[in-house]
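Incident review: delayed structure delivery

Summary: a single-chain prediction request sat in the queue longer than the usual turnaround. Root cause was a stuck worker, restarted by the on-call engineer. No data loss occurred. The affected request and its eventual output are reproduced below so the record is complete for anyone auditing the incident later.

Affected input:
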Amino acid sequence: MDDSSSPPRRGPGHSTNLVGRPSAFMASPGFNDAPVALHIWGVREMNPALFTMLDQAETLPEAGEAFLSYMVAMFGIDPEQREAAPGSRKRFRSSFLRLIQGWGFDSNGPEGAVLKGWVESRFGILPSFHKEIIADLQGPVWQAYVAERMQSRFHDNAILVQLDLLFEFCQWAIARFAYPGQSHITLYRGINAVDRHGILEQPSRREAVIRLNNLVSFSSDREVADCFGDRILTTRVPLAKVLFFPGLLPSHLLRGEREFLVLGGAFRVSIEDI
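Output delivered after worker restart:
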């Protein structure tokens, strides 16, 4: 959870996206205060069998198993198909599972670049940090990010479509099983230097509006967040912005740190010293 963000030196996003909401609005504290549902165009309509199957699930674990079975059938991403045998010429098939796992190891690695690129392409929210602050869309930091985002080894298996399905499943699971009737969840993030973040407003030492990266990790466990910095950010995250949460799938992905992957932008936060 060490992925930093940048000073607000430019606009937060593109003018177009695939969810039909203004990108600047989705990246604003106003959206976080009063969120609306986000759906990527065509995903549910193009996959009616998946959501018919999900509607038959009686528990979240059952729904998670159904989702994984669908993804295996659609994209061939079970372990046997994903990993080539020694000496085999079988081509690597990218998967959303590998991206989430890679993010857990290093959010500034190639997998993190692909995930940030997916947020950029679907929601129009630009990344502000990848290994370094991205201050110039023509500069070397941006170019290095784009090069990692477009690596061919992650784009041979409709990886962006896989992430579209993951987001829509996550939103379905939140409404059906995980947080029915709720609009927000309180989450925590450990940081070090507050001034490295894009501080948009700071009415007091313990309150601020901070621009975070376009995809950002939070923890639902304050004690876990304590391990990642000498200050703790606490914020109410709109559930409409959650891409992944621990327990969404029957796996150990991101469970150890109770980690939520959240679409970023400007957040109202409280700041506490540890």
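Verification: Strands lie at 129-130, 132-133, 184-191, 198-204, 207-219, 231-238, 242-244, 259-273.
Action items: add queue-age alerting; document worker restart procedure.
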